[in-house]
Amino acid sequence: MAYYHSKYAGSRKRKSKKWKFLLWFLLFLFVIGGIAVYWFNNLVNKPNTWVKNTVTYIHIPHETNFQGLLDSLYSKGIVIHRESFERWAKIKKLDKNVKPGNYRISSGMTNKELVNMFLAGLQEPVKVLINTDRIKAELAGRLGHQLEPDSIQFLFAFNDARMAQKYGFDEENFLTMIIPNTYEFYWTVSVNGFLDRMKKEYEKFWTEKRKQQAKDLNLTPVEVSILASIVQKESNKNDEKPIIASVYLNRLKRNWRLQADPTVVFALQDFTIRRVLKEQLEVDSPYNTYKYEGLPPGPICIASPSSIDAVLNAEDTDYMFFCAKDDFSGYHVFAKTSIGHALNARKYRHALNLRRILH
User: Fold this and answer.
1) Which one of 68, 153, 209, 306 has the fewest beta carbons within 10 angstroms of its own beta carbon?
2) Looking at residues 59-82, what average pLDDT do you find?
3) Statement: residue 29 has pLDDT above 50
4) Residue after which a domain boundary falls, among 120, 140, 174
5) How many domains does the chain have?
């Protein structure tokens, strides 16, 4: 009986030791698990970005590798704990899957948020302002500053006759396809993608009503835009543009030369000129409307919608001439006869001389 009791007591001791071991083991696992959860939470969900002005943007060009992405982030001091970011990025295989784009980064983003954004290519669109630039190089420079393709790529496309033909234009009038406005693009848009979008905006702008208005003037939409570019450079007063347009339309109807000073400036490619001189009127260029009849072969700037609509809605006048007012208000005086115009022009020349504006 004593032997049995001793055997039973030994068995209970062994079981007790097993339970204690199991409890300690479970406690150990719990602690290790807690540490792992804490480590994982810090790795993934702890805020890990700092931006001076709350929000910043970084550009990741095509062909950028993981190191290039890191360089872009670190050069701006965006990532607080670099090692944790790189560790999580490699776990999620971002090092093998960098997507180009314009990315918006705010303070307090976690590694998870940052890596997921880059993995999904969740880039922010950029607002691209297209202005009434005079020449292709100006527009190319503006676009190259705002989008990933550089200005040379844009300029090459604008001067490519085959590219222009693809969209229904020629090399000279290609820029009439551009309607000034502020557009949203992804920073990574290609030159072709940009031009595709511009053609869609052009077709959207040229409604059936506008096309009919152009037809009523015996002009094509391209010709309207070319004439509008001249009106644009004659005046920045929207209320006056329809009257200026009427003068040029009257001249076209009578087969008169347009004799527009801005076309001479464009032909000379000297945009510092404030006063067109007699000898400058002799420049031999198809853009010199003192020398050649009809419209020039292309626009002398990218015409604004207001200038295009001014041509389409030109006032019905008998004016054949106009001249800048001698008060330098930016407005003009109009005349039906050459005698009346000569008097107006004399007053303006006198005002230019008084102000010592000689060229």
Assistant:
1) 209
2) 95
3) yes
4) 120
5) 3
Q: Are 261 and 162 members of one domain?
A: no
What's the rounded Cα separation, in Å, for the pair 177 and 202?
6
Q: Are residues 232 and 299 in the same domain?
A: yes
Alpha-carbon torsion (255, 257, 260, 264), positive or negative = positive
d(CA 335, CA 153): 46
Of 205, 228, 258, the domain-final residue: 205
Identify the CA nearest to 311 among candidates 207, 230, 256. 230
First to last CA, the chain: 130
Q: Is residue 39 part of a domain?
A: no
Name the band, by pLDDT with cuts 50, 70 and 90, for residue 34: very low
Give the residue, 216 or 40, on which the prediction is more confident: 216
pLDDT value, residue 36 = 43
Sorting pLDDT into bands at 50, 70 and 90, what band is 321? very high
Q: Please check whether residue 238 lies inside any domain of the structure.
A: yes
Q: Domain containing 145: what range?
A: 125-205
- Between 49 and 42, the more confident residue is 49
Distance CA 323, CA 351 (A): 12
pLDDT tier at 39, thresholds 50, 70, 90: very low
**Cβ–Cβ < 8 Å for 49, 78:** yes
| Among 287, 169, 267, residue whose Cα is nearest residue 222 | 169
Query: Which alpha helices (DSSP H) does the chain contain, by range?
Result: 2-45, 66-75, 82-91, 111-120, 136-146, 151-158, 161-166, 191-205, 208-216, 221-234, 241-253, 261-268, 305-312, 338-354
259: left (phi over 0), alpha (psi -120 to 50) or beta: left
Count of positions (residues) in the chain: 359
Q: Are residues 282 and 144 in the same domain?
A: no
With respect to residue 44, please indicate whether it lies within any of the assigned structural domains: no
Rounded distance between C-alpha atoms, residue 338 and residue 22, angstroms: 111
- The 8-class DSSP code of residue 301 comes to S
Residue 351, pLDDT > 90, answer: no
What are the residues whose beta carbons fall under 8 Å from the beta carbon of 308, sequence distance 6 or more? 210, 224, 225, 228
